[in-house]
Amino acid sequence: MLDMHVHLIGHDDPREVNREIIREYLEEASIRGLKEIGFADHDYFWNQMNFPMIREVAEEFPDLAVRIGLEAEYRPHEEGRIKQLLEQFPFDFVIGSVHEFDGWIFDMPEAEAIHHKKNADEIYGRYFEVVTLAAKSGLFTTIGHLDLIKLFGVRPGKDILTLADEALTAVAEHGLVLEVNTNGRYKPVAEFYPERRLVEEIMRRGIEFTLGSDAHCAKVVGRDLEEASQMLTQIGVHSVVGFANMAKISYKLG
Ligand SMILES: [Zn+2]
Ligand SMILES: [Zn+2]
User: Where is each PHP domain found (predicted)?
Assistant: First the structure.
């Protein structure tokens, strides 16, 4: 019913966004029966973003709530830079994501071999330390793909609930939302982010969920979100949240 993690600008070929491209995304969202879609391009494509154009095309889709967010790369020493970006536009929501730490971009295909060489507990530990700082920064409404560090299928020796404990505490204390991000299924790990045990723990702690496909093209909008909602319902989650003007909007599941 909602997809709050959608990219208009692709990684490999950062294209010029035009009305036709935006329309394709919104058409796909409508076909899939979504009530709300949230665009959240990576902050490093700032100069290619065109928010007025999104607003303009959205007027053609009166039944769809079209939100504008940002997926900001969280690096602990760059909080000021993110803050400056957020002051430049009235975003509906902001996803804080960790794709790198200590100068290592760990989610690129080239990083896979290094994952297998490094100590898994150490990289999980360091990753969740940075996620904890992101949650404490006060910059975000949402933490993106909570256990992204698993993407190549390398598992820690330590219990994932212990590794993620502090990050979850920070998320709960700061009222942040976590997404079920279905894109993990299409990575070597082949499962949603976060894994089911974490999803259950998140629910137990009373943290709210949102849903995201992490689509980088129109066809992927809403992918597997029906299944993600069913999974949430099965474990006892009754609602998910969208965002307008940085405030949560609750949607009943099922
Ligand atoms: Zn991401
Ligand atoms: Zn993303």
Answer: 22-183
